[in-house]
Amino acid sequence: MNLGPTSGLRLRTKLLLLALTTLTLPWAGCQYAKEMESVLRANEQQSLLAVASTIAASLQGRRELLYRTGAAKQSRTAGPLDIEPIVMTATPVLDGIADEWPSDSRNTKVLEKSDGDSLRLLTTTRDRWLYGLAIVRDNKLVFDRSDVTPLDSATLGDRLWLAFDDPRGGQQRVFLSASGPGALRGRRIETREYGREEVVDELRVEGAWRVLRDGYAIEFRIPLSMIGQHFGVLIDDRDRRGGVRSSLGTLDPAELTATGLLIAASPDLSDRLQQFAQPGVELQVASRTGATLARLEAPALPQDYTAMRGLLPRLYRRFLDGDRIPRRTSDAERERLSRELVATASAGKATTALTAGRYENRVIVTAAVPIFDNDRQQVIGVLQLAQTADRWLTLRDRALTRLLNLTLLATGLAVLATFWFAGRLALRIARLRAASESALTREGRLAVDLPETNAPDELGDLSRSFDALLRRLNGYTGYLRTLAGKLAHEIRTPLTIVRSSLDNLEHEPLSADATTYVARARHGAERLNGILLAMGAATRVEEAIANSERVEFDLGDVVRSAVDAYASAFSARRFTLEQPDGSCRLRGSPDLIVQMLDKLIDNAVDFSANGDTIIVRLLADPTGARLEVENPGPLLPDTRDSLFESLWQSRQGTDARPHFGLGLYIVRLIADFHGGYARAANLPDHSGVRLSVTLARTSD
Labelling 94: which of 25, 138, 162, 305 has CA 20 to 30 A away? Predict the structure, then answer.
């Protein structure tokens, strides 16, 4: 029974989707957390800027604290011959290997010659020492023999010269040479009496020579206390021992004098910055060009601030941060950003930036502020503070985790409660629908007992409305069921009077016309009497069913006896009986079975022609039996399911007998009494009709 379209969303699904709208609560919580995080981040950046500005103010005008003597007096921009070493955090080993050296373009100078030879010079400072690494590309390495006769030009090979201002005045020149790879010690040339030159070991200058595949590397160190304002490096390249030299470096090749500045930090700068050390904060002072003068590593943060607390905080952080906070920053990107910060601060403007840390789930906030001269007109350096953002991220994550956990728990409970309510509501509606679909029984009676009639809600109101409607409809259908019997009872007495009057009238002398009218009146009375008998047949059968007792009998014997009687009664038709061997025991009423067969045979005779064969078939199985009656004739209409309803007929013509559609209705009543049902169908070859009645084997 189809009560309506089945497409579209079910009520349970609609309620579930409605419950999912509670997910707006976590969304609102996320928006609140984003706003809170933005405020915390802005406050952190402003606080870091304030701290950096305070430290920069303490260094204002302190050139002698930022730079070494000499460089402090220079205000010009660094030139191409100036050397700007960065601060190294670990002491390098003098072995000529560049793996431990930081890669920073600001402390690297690259000089090339037209023949392909080149010099790559890296410089750093560490603990009052200046470290240098000269990587030379040389197509022909020549060691010299200056260890025996250092002043003999015929023994000279490749050399590294260092020239620098002597704090006592003038410039000193120190060279590094060797007869093979290994450790080096600096030597200088001193002029004695009468212009005599002598080579003296400079024990404070140390180094190491290492042969490379395409050249060599010399790593050296020299105390910063030896160096004044100027400093330079030069490589003497010879293709053979004692040959003509080809120089490459930052010194004047003719005079071996240094004109470039050594822009290095004062040794006291690191000690001064120690007082500003804070957990999780890295402090760095750089020159205007970005060369690092001093760096203070960040002490470790407490574990409470750095530990990630499970999977949910990670998921929440990734969902909320999105692209606003960087997840990964390459070294090249980090260096580029640092140069931009220094350039902005060198222009006199403080700025901040967010970058990803070198470790997973670390966010670094960096502030860069200018260090002004006393007149606040010139920038003499840049102060950078880098602080991990884990502190404010951790505070946000703690609040966010609690908030989202509570909202997700509330949403889950709301969804479960709504799903339970939707399931219960759908179950109640399904029960009411099933009861409404089965309200009309096979006997045409109405079942007026509906569920949910005691419920106080809207479904209860609907069920009570249906119940009242069905009760009124049941009363009306009950009246219709008894209408035929009542009409038969009421019409029988007037009909008897009419028939007796016609009998008396026949004994009176009548004209020919009157005789014709009396005959017509009698014929109508007889026809009306037949109608009354047909109308009362169903009522009598219902009464007989109500008063029948069930007995056990052999259905095969009853059917065989009835078919033999039909063959005699309807001689114009041929009857064929098909039944299994043996007995077919049923429990029921043989008289009602015979009445049922009478109606089936009567229907078959009415719709067949003289000489047609009517087949009566009895089929037995362990659960019961089935009676089939086949007759040739017109096919059933599409409304064949209504053949067994009361007062329904599909006859196209009329005959002398009245037909009210009660015959097959009686068949259905008797089948129901025996626990079965009746069906009608056209034959497979469309030559006729088959009416079948299924009966249960036993019935209480």
Answer: 138
Neighbours of 277 (CB within 10 A): 13
Nearest of 642, 697, 662 to residue 442 by alpha carbon: 642
**pLDDT at residue 273, rounded to an integer:** 83
Q: In the structure encoding, which two tokens stand for residue 307, read together?
A: 């530990």
What are the start and end residues of each CATH 1.10.287 domain in the chain?
A: 438-547
Q: Are 587 and 550 in contact (CB under 8 A)?
A: yes
The CATH fold assigned to 438-547 is: Helix Hairpins (1.10.287)
Sheet (strand 281-286) strand order:
292-296, 281-286, 379-388, 363-372, 351-356
CB 385 within 8 A of CB 397: no
Question: Could you tell me which of 309, 314, 324 has the C-alpha nearest to residue 355?
Answer: 324
Rounded to 5°, the CA angle 182-185-191 comes to 145
Please say whether the beta carbons of 693 and 678 come within 8 A.
Answer: yes
CATH 3.30.565.10 domain locations along the chain: 548-696
Q: What is the Cα–Cα distance from 111 to 479, expressed in whole angstroms?
A: 119
Taking the alpha carbons at both ends of the chain, their separation in whole angstroms is 30
CATH of domain 71-249: 2.60.40
Domain(s) of CATH 3.30.450.20: residues in the chain: 27-65+267-398
Q: What is the mean pLDDT of residues 16-35?
A: 73
* Cβ atoms within 10 Å, residue 24: 11
Say if residue 98 is exposed, middle or buried (CB neighbours under 10 Å; 0-12, 13-18, 19+): middle
Assess contact for 538 and 646: CB atoms under 8 A: yes
Question: Residues 365, 366, 372, CA angle at the centre, nearest 5°?
Answer: 155
Instruction: Give me the phi and psi of 8, to 5 degrees please.
Output: 95, 180
Superfamily (CATH) of domain 27-65+267-398: PAS domain (3.30.450.20)
Coil, strand or helix at 525? helix
Are 240 and 142 in contact by the 8 Å Cβ rule? The answer is yes
Contact assessment for residue 204 and residue 146, using Cβ atoms and an 8 Å cutoff: no
Give the pLDDT confidence of 70-117 residue by residue, as tens digits: 454 444 555 678 888 887 878 888 988 888 887 666 678 889 888 888
Residue 398, token pair as written in the block: 């703690």
pTM of this structure? 0.49
Phi, psi of 482, rounded to the nearest 5 degrees: -95, 0
Cα Rg of the chain, angstroms: 58
| Per-residue pLDDT at 305 | 43
- Read off the DSSP letter of residue 275: G
Q: What is the CATH number of domain 548-696?
A: 3.30.565.10
pLDDT tens digits along 588-642: 888 888 888 988 898 888 888 888 999 999 988 877 888 999 999 888 877 666 6
